[in-house]
Amino acid sequence: MDKMRVANALALASGILWVLCSIVILILPDFSLSVTEWWMHGMDLSIMGSWNLDLMNFLLGGIALIVSAWVSGWVFVWSWDFVKKQSK
User: Fold this and answer.
1) What is the pLDDT of residues 3-41, one digit of tens each?
2) How many structural domains does the chain have?
3) b/e string for 49-86 if b means 16 or more Cβ within 10 A?
4) Residue 43 CA from chain centroid, whole number
5) DSSP at 50
6) Where in the sequence is the domain holding 66, given as residue range(s)?
7) Which of 37, 52, 59, 70 is disulfide-compatible with 11, CB 3.0–4.6 A?
8) In 10 A of CB 21, how many CB atoms?
9) Rounded to two decimals, what is the model's pTM?
């Protein structure tokens, strides 16, 4: 596997999903909070307040996600190649 291609693809996919998720939060904030609570095993998140999605939060969160996704993709392929070599 090509580390750079997988890392780039995972970063791109994460960036696209980040934008789509942010749009859903802007359009349907209450529904988005409900989905988040479902994912958190029913934890009551209302005490945390409402969404605070401004441009800076959008950009910084997106950058952090994309960088993390890229690193994860690269490490995954490195690990895959390492394990593949060990099994020969």
Assistant:
1) 999 999 999 999 999 999 999 999 999 999 999 999 999
2) 1
3) eeeebeeeeeeeebeebbeebbeebbeebeeeeeeeee
4) 20
5) S
6) 3-86
7) 70
8) 16
9) 0.85
